[in-house]
């Protein structure tokens, strides 16, 4: 099986994080004492809290085995979306001489209305170009800050590094500025929609003027020219709206995705290690390919709703258990193979002991489960994907939190 080839050093280091173990019914052992963990090769050796497994080179148990942090998932912090570059300046309406007729007067009025509208469109075009310039500047600054944070986290840093914290705060400011840019785009889109309605009205009025009595040939000639000018203006307004709305859509999706990623990144800065993209972003990225991914997952990973083996077991047998990276990796892998996955988060307490001890253990396990739930939320996993419950087990020797794939 391909997954049995996972390097033992990497697996040992990952599993040793705070007593956290990955468990799958085909290739990950359970560290919770379940009987299902069988047929383990060297890479499947259970790891006790605070210990590392024997690696392929024969390093003795108990000797820390270094494993570099996992590379970020493909597509994390992708380049920002490209904004439109079209200039939507409108050429002025063709001038004409008044004919002195009633229809000629109507032509002059319609031409003036068109000129005023074209002036407004040119102003709106100028606003659009300014917004694009500001958005590009804010995006470049944001992207550079996030890239710097990620690069530092990937090589390792101290928890709560103040430099990274300051960069994260600056990133938050830039993402808010990008949100303001989107608001300005929406406002401009509303005004441009009004322009489109007005130019449509002018086209109807120009077409109707051909049916008015008392016109001479020059009136109709000027009306035809005016009609062409109105149609050209309609094309410009429609293209402006179309490109602007595409910009709004792409920027809105980008900012929403990056807000989620910033939340996950804040947790990574707090812990001093890189996790990866927000789980919410991972769900969105894989949803479009759900059928193919689910099929692959069922074939390769044997994930299924009937699978009752825990995906992750976190043992809270000490203070400050470091489990976030291992938790993220396991849940991220499950989502990448089954985008619609939901999870049962179970607080497990040992069943032995006095009633007072059982009560204390139960309260402590519930608090630990709530802590893990908050961590999953910070990683971007939607709350509706997680169901929280509690149980006691004679197999548990200490308080545990188990995550099951539902």
Strand and helix layout:
Blueprint: H1 8-15, E1 20-22, H2 102-155, H3 162-209, H4 217-271, H5 279-287, H6 290-300, E2 312-315, H7 324-337, E3 343-350, H8 355-378, E4 386-393, E5 400-405
Parallel strand pairs: 3-4
Antiparallel strand pairs: 1-2, 2-5, 3-5
Helix pairs in contact: 2-3, 2-4, 3-4, 5-7
Number of distinct beta strands? 5
- Domain count, please report it: 2
Number of helices: 8
Provide the low-confidence segments as ranges: 1-76, 287-307
Shape: elongated
C-alpha termini separation: 24 Å
Structural class of the secondary elements?
alpha+beta
Q: Which CATH class of the largest domain?
A: Mainly Alpha
Give the name of the CATH architecture of the largest domain: Up-down Bundle
Beta-sheet strand percentage? 5-15%
Here the CATH topology of the largest domain equals Glutathione S-transferase Yfyf (Class Pi), Chain A, domain 2
DSSP helix fraction:
40-55%
Largest sheet: number of strands, sense, barrel closure: 5 strands, mixed
Strand order of the largest sheet: 1-2-5-3-4
CA-atom Rg in angstroms: 31 Å
Report the mean per-residue pLDDT as an integer.
75
Order of helices and strands: HEHHHHHEHEHEE
